[in-house]
Amino acid sequence: MNKSTLLAGAGALAATIGLSYGQAAFTTPVGYHTETVQPGFNVIGVNLVDAPLVSSALTGAAGDTLTDANVDFTAALPEGGLYSIEFANGQNARITAITQNTVTTEGALTLDADPTANSYIIRKVRTLGDYFGADNSAGFQQGGADTADIIWVPDGEAFKKAYYAEAVAFLGITAGWKLVSTGNDDQSEFPIDFTKGLIVERRGEGNLDLTFTGHVKLTPTTVSADAPFTYLSRVYPAGSTLGNSGISDSAVQGGADTATNVWLADGPGAFKKGYFAEAVAFLGITEGWKLVSTGNDDQTDFPLTSGIIIQRNTDAFDVTLTPPAFYADL
């Protein structure tokens, strides 16, 4: 549950998520939002990103190798970090290699034929420690893999399961972030892409408030719905609805049982499901966004929850999430 009220308008967003502005030429608005997780399984998204480290435009592109003769990437990107690049058209990818004037991405991106038209931002990929504190300052219940709160991170059609371990000296277990699959290895630097929706399995008693801080992404975001159920962040911290999300541009339209369904968390383990209906005149069905539970009522303005699930009913396809129109004024 997002404890901030989602309001329309740039001024309202600033008030709602604590917006502020920096002085650097490529600084983006900064904000925060709080999600409340309850005992059980909670689908959430982070909805904020790390600070821009580079903001420029390409001078060349060849497959997955991108060139900017005006930037020294080895100086701008601290060694040992993991970074992602995002473009104004929504394309984004992790960076796998860096030289002075080039970066290599995970696969080729769909970019403008004129490299100079490809403006981009590079950011650090945040980690478990970045989001939740290297020492679990977020306050998750600690313990073993069978007792601690679990953060489920999508990994294709499966998940990586992270938890904060309590030290157990006689077993050689140290305190810190772990993955269920990797024993006692420290996982505080385990990366989580900003597009990922997360499941928080709350095993502790009572609710837990998770406050996320960071920069507000202002451009579209293209993600791949490549699993039967793809867990996504809505990316934008306030103002996103079914109607302005951009999902209808690529989702399959139809009835509740044939269209692409967008699952919206409605409490632990519960969901509302939205879909874009095709008009069926003799049944009195109009074209547009609907909820499975509310018949033909128009749901264009139904808000996206911070984490969403795309249930695809066709081959993998790309979804370009779009920021609300008022983000252009930020």
Structure explained in plain terms:
The protein has 330 residues and is mostly beta strands. The chain folds into three domains: 33-48 and 127-215, no CATH class; 52-124; 221-329, no CATH class. Helices cover 5% and strands 35% of the residues. It is built from three helices and 21 strands. The chain has helices spanning 10-16, 73-76, 128-132; strands at 30-37, 40-45, 52-57, 60-62, 65-67, 83-87, 92-98, 102-105, 119-124, 150-155, 158-165, 176-179, 197-202, 208-215, 221-225, 229-233, 261-265, 271-277, 288-291, 307-311, 317-321. It has a seven-stranded antiparallel sheet. A five-stranded antiparallel sheet has the order 2-13-10-11-12, with no helix packed on it. The protein has a five-stranded antiparallel sheet with strand order 16-20-17-18-19, with no helix packed on it. Strand 17 and strand 18 (271-277) form a beta hairpin. It is globular and about 70 Å long. It starts with 9 loop residues before the first helix and ends in a 9-residue tail after the last strand. Mean pLDDT is 91; it is low at 3-9 and 19-25.
